[in-house]
Amino acid sequence: MSFQAAAARSARCWPRISTARATAVIVLSRQPGSAPWRTVPWNGRDTGHWRQELEGADVVVNLAGRSVNCRYNRRNSREILQSRIGATEAVGRAIAEAAHPPAIWMNASTATIYRHSLDQPMDEATGELGGTEPDAPATWRFSIDVATRWEQAFFAAATPHTRRIALRSAMTMSPGKCGIFDTLLSLVRAGMGGKAGSGQQFVSWIHYLDFIRAIE
Questions:
Q1: Res 179: pLDDT
Q2: What is the pTM of this model?
Q3: Span 48-63, mean pLDDT?
Q4: How far is CA 123 from CA 15, 119, 130, 185, in A?
Q5: Domains of the chain with bracketed CATH
Q6: Cβ neighbourhood burial of 78 (10 Å; 0-12, 13-18, 19+)
Q7: Taking a C-beta distance cutoff of 8 angstroms, is the pair 95, 153 a contact?
Q8: 3-state secondary structure the chain
């Protein structure tokens, strides 16, 4: 089983990909050689010679996108949106042009696409898309717009021979470097720890090992 992962991550934050069932793992990265697997250079935006790595692959997983752990100023907001749409469109073009396209394409998405809810949990079966809440602040609307346009780019790709799956996940809980607890700990150390919100809100979470198992 060949496993391709297009991942825009720093060298210390490579996703914990299980290779027990894989015969080959190829990572597309802006930092070739920094991952624990064979890497192929990709700027996360354009198509190029890396397209040949998709030929005959069983699975392509696109995780590329600028981190949202930043201030939502104009520049960062533009990069958050464009990095996701651009990477998705590039992978879509590469798959469309493949002589032997991959069987499955999994593309990162986000549970933020669902409306803010205090009355019911949101899932793929009964979830309601957000964006029309009358009291939603601008930052929420931006995040929902990113999620919506991200998936639009994904499902607009002309890949009739490749099954597509949008990975609508929230934060995955992991104790190591670059995990959400690492991020929260930095806030505590800066004196900004404490409760978040009213305590009535849902927290959509999954352990990183269960997330990996779900993908497998």
A1: 83
A2: 0.84
A3: 93
A4: 24, 13, 13, 29
A5: 2-173+206-215 (3.40.50.720)
A6: exposed
A7: no
A8: CEEEEECCCCHHHCCCCCCCCCCEEEEEECCCCCCCCEEEECCCCCCCHHHHHHCCCCEEEECCCCCCCCCCCHHHHHHHHHHHHHHHHHHHHHHHCCCCCCCEEEEEEEHHHECCCCCCCCCCCCCCECCCCCCCCHHHHHHHHHHHHHHHHHHHCCCCCCEEEEEEECEEECCCCCCHHHHHHHHHHCCCCCCCCCCCCCCCEEEHHHHHHHHC
Tokens of 61: 């997983």
Residue 122's contacts (CB-CB under 8 Å, 6 or more residues apart) are: 111, 114, 115, 128, 204
pLDDT in tens, 119-177: 888 888 888 888 888 877 777 889 989 999 999 999 999 999 999 999 998 888 888 88
- What is the CB neighbour count within 10 angstroms for residue 89? 16
